[in-house]
């Protein structure tokens, strides 16, 4: 796809300085710009590169003043960073705007599908599946029986959505994600063998949720595993059965959340955090990467470590952790002196 400076300026409501007919077909960093690419300058640290970049078009703030000659065409906007992000979003919408049903696919006769849907090759849509408007289902996607998917949802290649799942509007489910697999439920019998506990619940994902590649969300044993609206999940996260994650909480990669834990609104959870089951984490909690959470957490707490401590206490304690060898040596000297 090619865009002219005039088209881009129209999208961004910007002013052109240079050639309005110059075309771009790719994006680049300003320091790596090549002919036919579009870039932007927002951080003053990168200002020297605007005089050497070979990018055909550069988005800049309106207050930018060139100190030397430029080869690149400028588009002046109020905020270069936000405008570039807006352009990326527009580009993705155009790029992902596929419609129609490719072949081969399997679509049950009982499927209900809204207008402007796209279903990629080798996908499977089971009985009584409901698909909303403008939904994009990429190749090799599995959607189980009785699943309900809202409007403007994108399900990327290879994702698996098990039966009875409910997906809200404006969600994105990335490749390899699995929604609705059985929870890890086993109980020992009289012979000491572990016997599977049937997982009869489902997964509910509300509006505007992003689910990263390779992330798994288990169905509930009874009831529902619930991901509230606005939640953003990174890649390779494990969310166990009957977990509930509150609105607008963000969780980084490789975090694991055990069964029946409730997480509040507007929390920020770093990568590789481990959270035990059957606890409650309050609203606006921040948990640093690689922390281990084994207790209930109150609203607004900031935690680090394993087991996690209050963030301030952890930092104070860390001064002693890293000096333990010196402290031990000093104690040994004192003990020898008094023997």
UniProtKB/TrEMBL annotation:
Keywords on record: Acyltransferase, Lipid A biosynthesis, Lipid biosynthesis, Lipid metabolism, Repeat, Transferase
Residues covered by the UDP-3-O-[3-hydroxymyristoyl] glucosamine N-acyltransferase non-repeat region domain: 21-89
Top-level taxon of the source organism: Bacteria
Enzyme superclass (EC): transferase
Listed GO CC annotations: membrane
Segments forming a coiled coil: none
SUPFAM superfamilies associated with the record: Trimeric LpxA-like enzymes (SSF51161)
GO molecular function, one term: UDP-3-O-[(3R)-3-hydroxyacyl]-glucosamine N-acyltransferase activity
Biological or metabolic pathway of the protein: Bacterial outer membrane biogenesis; LPS lipid A biosynthesis
TM annotation in the entry: none
Enzyme Commission number(s) from the entry: 2.3.1.191
GO BP field: lipid A biosynthetic process
Catalytic residue positions: 241 (proton acceptor)
Catalytic activity: a UDP-3-O-[(3R)-3-hydroxyacyl]-alpha-D-glucosamine + a (3R)-hydroxyacyl-[ACP] = a UDP-2-N,3-O-bis[(3R)-3-hydroxyacyl]-alpha-D-glucosamine + holo-[ACP] + H(+)
Subunit structure comment from the entry: Homotrimer.
Classification via HAMAP family: LpxD (MF_00523)
Function: Catalyzes the N-acylation of UDP-3-O-acylglucosamine using 3-hydroxyacyl-ACP as the acyl donor. Is involved in the biosynthesis of lipid A, a phosphorylated glycolipid that anchors the lipopolysaccharide to the outer membrane of the cell.
Family to which the UniProt record says this protein belongs: Belongs to the transferase hexapeptide repeat family. LpxD subfamily.
PANTHER family: UDP-3-O-ACYLGLUCOSAMINE N-ACYLTRANSFERASE (PTHR43378), UDP-3-O-ACYLGLUCOSAMINE N-ACYLTRANSFERASE 1, MITOCHONDRIAL-RELATED (PTHR43378:SF2)
Name assigned to this protein: UDP-3-O-acylglucosamine N-acyltransferase
Species, as recorded: Leptobacterium flavescens
């Amino acid at each position: 796809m090619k865009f002219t400076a005039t088209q881009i300026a129209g999208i961004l409501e910007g002013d052109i300085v240079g050639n309005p007919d110059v075309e771009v077909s790719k994006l680049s960093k300003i320091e790596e710009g090549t002919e036919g690419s579009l870039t932007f300058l927002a951080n003053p640290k990168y200002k020297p590169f605007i005089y050497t970049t070979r990018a055909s078009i550069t988005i800049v703030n309106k207050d930018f003043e060139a100190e030397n000659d430029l080869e690149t065409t400028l588009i002046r906007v109020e905020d270069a960073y936000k405008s570039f992000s807006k352009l990326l979003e527009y580009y993705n919408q155009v790029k992902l705007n596929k419609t129609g049903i490719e072949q081969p696919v399997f679509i049950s006769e009982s499927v209900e599908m809204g207008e402007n849907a796209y279903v990629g090759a080798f996908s499977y849509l089971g009985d009584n599946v409901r698909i909303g408007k403008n939904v994009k289902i990429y190749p090799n996607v599995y959607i189980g029986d009785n699943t309900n998917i809202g409007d403007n949802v994108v399900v990327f290649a290879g994702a698996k959505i098990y039966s009875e799942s409910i997906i809200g509007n404006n969600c994105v489910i990335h490749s390899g994600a699995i929604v609705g697999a059985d929870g890890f439920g086993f109980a020992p019998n009289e012979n000491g063998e572990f016997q599977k506990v049937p997982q009869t619940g489902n997964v509910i994902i509300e509006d505007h949720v992003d689910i990263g590649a390779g992330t798994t969300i288990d169905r509930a044993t009874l009831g529902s595993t619930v991901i509230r609206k606005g939640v953003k999940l990174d890649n390779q996260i494990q969310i166990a059965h009957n977990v509930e994650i509150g609105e607008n909480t963000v969780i980084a990669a490789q975090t694991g959340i055990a069964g029946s834990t409730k997480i509040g609104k507007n929390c920020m959870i770093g990568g590789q955090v481990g959270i035990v089951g059957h606890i409650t984490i309050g609203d606006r909690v921040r948990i640093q990467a690689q922390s281990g959470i084994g207790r209930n957490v109150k609203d607004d707490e900031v935690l680090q470590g394993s087991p996690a401590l209050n963030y301030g206490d952890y930092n104070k304690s860390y001064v002693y952790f890293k000096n333990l060898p010196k402290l031990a040596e000093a104690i040994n000297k004192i003990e020898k002196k008094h023997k």
